[in-house]
Design goal:
The protein is α+β, with helices and mostly antiparallel strands. The chain is 21% helix and 27% strand. The protein starts with a helix and ends with a strand.
Length: 404
């Protein structure tokens, strides 16, 4: 046991984290898994506490959040009566004064076609397998606006442009949504291009306009439905982003009342684009590779921003979150992917008791079920890694920008 504790002390010496604070525009982006009204109003919710701890290490002027519920009265049930207050609630939980921020927060398309349970309330989570049958089969979600995107800005907001209502066939006339299914039914041929949000929030930074494009695309994954539109829809959503940022993509675009950015416009485009650019099969991955060739990327290298849930060794990793920009320069950045250096402690159920109070504060014990051994086993990991894993299945991004 003494040898084990000595090893843990050595590992703990590498787990410190310094505050990030540089750049005229400091962006923090986070896909916070299924952040809903119930979690935000629970003062002791472990996920929200973990999120707060993560953000306490970073200074930010722009906070981009994916997977936040846009709150409506009686959604998912009558315990909740607010409208559009969840972003303010999050800032409060982060220890921020919401009056110092301007909020760009609108309902996503997700969940508006979800069905209610027999008691007249929406299902609140997917823990019950029956909930999947109630989900919105067109844009997913168990209740209206479940997976919305939010932006909080310390800079004044000049105007906001939402592009949520575009029909898929309007953008790409060759698309045929009705050839795909949701559940057992063909999808509506007039379904929207975006299942969530595509928002252009124009901010004023010292007299200069900067477009902040926040987007969360549909996952390039079928979730067991072989006739899912997700791969193709993800590709077309990213084609729209490519067209909006650069003025062109690999299809002809004729949209009434919507124009791409001008070549001279300064912008930051950020979000969970839900496909790894290294994938050679997904249409959306090809689009991202084109954007990487056309635009500046804050994180061009091969790294990851998603890791499968839980603390089991060798988790599944993907690069899903991205930041593209123009008219600016990056002065500092971090893809906040912590070291998962771990020490196997064994599968003896008394291990947590044996090591109670003996670990350095930078280390903690985590558990996972080992399917091969059919046992619950224990590892020691850094507290920073454990905190990030409890906060979400995505790791956040931080970027400091200056003007060119």
């Amino acid at each position: 046991m003494k040898k084990l504790i000595a090893t843990l002390l050595i590992l703990s010496s590498c787990s410190t984290h310094k505050m990030k604070d540089s750049g005229k525009i400091k962006l923090f982006h986070y896909n916070i898994k299924e952040l809903d009204s119930q979690k935000l109003r629970d003062s002791n919710h472990p996920q929200v506490q973990a999120v707060s701890e993560v953000l306490s290490h970073y200074s930010y002027d722009l906070l981009s959040v994916n997977e936040m519920q846009y709150d409506y009265p009686n959604v998912p049930n009558n315990l909740f009566q607010s409208t559009g207050d969840n972003l303010r609630q999050l800032l409060h939980r982060l220890g921020q004064d919401s009056k110092q921020f301007t909020m760009s927060f609108y309902p996503a398309n997700t969940g508006f076609k979800a069905s209610k349970k027999s008691n007249g309330q929406y299902a609140a989570n997917f823990e019950d397998k029956e909930s999947y049958k109630l989900a919105d089969q067109e844009s997913f979600g168990l209740f209206p606006a479940q997976y919305s995107t939010a932006l909080a800005s310390r800079f004044p907001v000049v105007r906001t442009i939402q592009n949520n209502s575009i029909k898929w066939r309007e953008f790409n006339p060759k698309s045929n949504p009705s050839q795909y299914t949701g559940g057992d039914k063909a999808l509506n041929r007039n379904m929207p291009l975006f299942d969530k949000n595509f928002t252009d929030t124009v901010i004023n930074v010292e007299g200069t306009e900067v477009h902040i494009i926040t987007c969360h695309t549909v996952p390039a994954f079928h979730f067991g439905n072989k006739k899912s539109p997700n791969y193709v829809r993800n590709g077309d959503q990213l084609r729209f982003l490519e067209w909006y940022l650069t003025g062109s993509t690999d299809i002809k675009v004729k949209l009434k009342g919507i124009a791409p950015l001008r070549a001279s416009d300064k912008f930051i485009a950020v979000g969970d684009f839900n496909t790894d650019f290294q994938n050679k099969e997904n249409p959306g991955s090809e689009v991202i590779r084109r954007m990487q060739a056309k635009l500046k990327s804050a994180f061009p290298s091969r790294t990851y921003s998603y890791e499968s849930d839980g603390f089991a060794p060798n988790p599944f990793k993907l690069r899903l979150d991205y930041v593209f920009y123009s008219g600016l320069k990056v002065v500092d950045s971090e893809m906040i992917t912590p070291s998962d250096e771990r020490l196997f402690l064994g599968c003896d159920p008394t291990i947590p008791v044996q090591l109670a109070g003996k670990l350095p504060k930078e280390r903690e014990i985590v558990s996972y079920f080992d399917k091969k051994k059919n046992l619950t086993c224990f590892d020691s990991v850094s507290t920073w890694y454990a905190t990030l894993k409890r906060a979400s299945d995505h790791f956040p991004l931080w970027v400091g920008f200056d003007f060119e």
